[in-house]
Amino acid sequence: MFRRNSAQSRARRGLYAVLAAVVLLLAGSAAGAEQPVAEQAESKSLPGFSHGTVAVQGTTLHYVRGGSGPPLVLLHGWPQTWWEWAKVMPALAENHTVIAFDLPGAGESSIPAGGYDKATTAARIREGVHKLGYTQVSLLGHDTGALVAYPYARDYPAEVVRMAVLETPLSGFGLENFYGISFHLGLNQTAAPVPEKLIDNDDVPTYLGWLFSGARYPERIDQATFFQAYASPARRTAGYEYYRAFAADGANNQANAHKRLQMPVLAMGAEFAFGPHVANSFSQVGDDVRGVVAPDSGHWIAEENTAFLSACAKLFFGPAGVPAPSPELANCVA
């Protein structure tokens, strides 16, 4: 979701105005078509993990599952898929049953015709979790996945044991303040068919490559995999729809903020991206929010500082009483 480049903020605001004008000149719309329910072979694989699909209302979810122990659900961000978690999943699977979903419309999940607001997406993920046989889970979400994890925990609090959110403030509680830091936040929210017509298949490596170049360590991200994941127009439109729902998400979050989160919440920002702003945002909707800053990392913590995220998550989702091995991990303790 995020790329920091404040030096061009005035130019980006100008771009937003241009894009708004372009909306009036372009016609038509792009709509995703529901893909058939089927078991699918995934080109990316991890030893000890298996792939599957589960049908839920309005779509079909692809997931990757492995390990044993209490269930831990992983929710990725944009422009990624479940594969963003590949480096941390083996460590987490040592003590948990790890279930990494592709969000509806992304990766190998089918593309729903609508319902990209985060409350609807959370309800779909929850239905998938239930159909896989789990009623209580912990959640780990990054970027868009964190925005989905919040209404899951808020609307079904008895079913969420603990939640960790990475690298995004919450819509309605601070995310809006950051729209000027990267032009993609405005472009992706622009009504169809503007981004659809501006970004074609050949532009994907340029657009997403520029986004990933804002990482602290872009070479640690499997960019080619994500370029391929968003190589089709329908997949890109699904991604834009998550952004187009931001205003509705913010209104929904504000209307339901009285349902304060009671479960422990780990709110992690990266040193070279959102930093403490994640905890500042989620503290407005939760009573037990532990702020953590991932050192020496940009927005894509799971790939850029895998060791830190793995160590922190194992502490936070693990048994109580395990001491932190370093001061940086102090707030990760269960």
TrEMBL record:
Q: Does the keyword DNA-binding apply?
A: no
Which keywords are on file for this protein? Hydrolase, Signal
Instruction: Supply one GO CC term from the record.
Output: membrane
Mind telling me what this protein is named? Answer: Alpha/beta hydrolase
Pfam name, any one? Abhydrolase_1
InterPro entries reported in the protein's UniProt record: AB_hydrolase_1, AB_hydrolase_fold, AB_hydrolase_sf, Epox_hydrolase-like
Q: PANTHER family of this UniProt entry?
A: HYDROLASE, PUTATIVE (AFU_ORTHOLOGUE AFUA_2G14860)-RELATED, MONOACYLGLYCEROL LIPASE
